[in-house]
Write a structure and sequence with these properties.
The chain is of the alpha+beta class. The chain contains two helices and four strands, in the order H-H-E-E-E-E. It has a four-stranded antiparallel β-sheet, with no helix packed on it. The longest helix has 20 residues. The termini are far apart.
């Protein structure tokens, strides 16, 4: 009984090789896009007035503008972000996770 079930599962996957390759390509392109959009990389400086993609506290992505950048010794800069789609303002540390 068990070998029959495994045989059926193997046959169902044979036609999905192209789909798997497309998925691997999409995953690779997503990782490249994510790396390109990181703001905490060495040599990449963010400036006041720059617009970024930011995620709010409800996990909704929207555009935001950097209004204030606070820099101190031995710490990453702290950014004061104004959400452009709502009347919200949020403080974002550069040590926040990039997803």
């Amino acid at each position: 009984m068990r070998s029959v079930a495994l045989g059926k599962r193997g046959n169902a996957c044979e036609g999905q090789v192209d789909e798997y390759e497309r998925w691997k390509h999409r995953l690779k392109m997503y990782r490249l896009w994510k790396e390109k959009h990181r703001i905490d990389l060495p040599g990449k400086e963010v400036k006041i007035g720059e617009t970024l993609d930011v995620r709010d506290t409800e996990y909704i992505w929207c555009a935001g503008t950097i209004e204030l950048k606070i820099t101190t010794a031995n710490r990453k800069p702290l950014l004061y972000i104004h959400y452009n789609v709502r009347s919200l303002t949020h403080t974002l540390g550069l040590e926040s996770k990039v997803r």
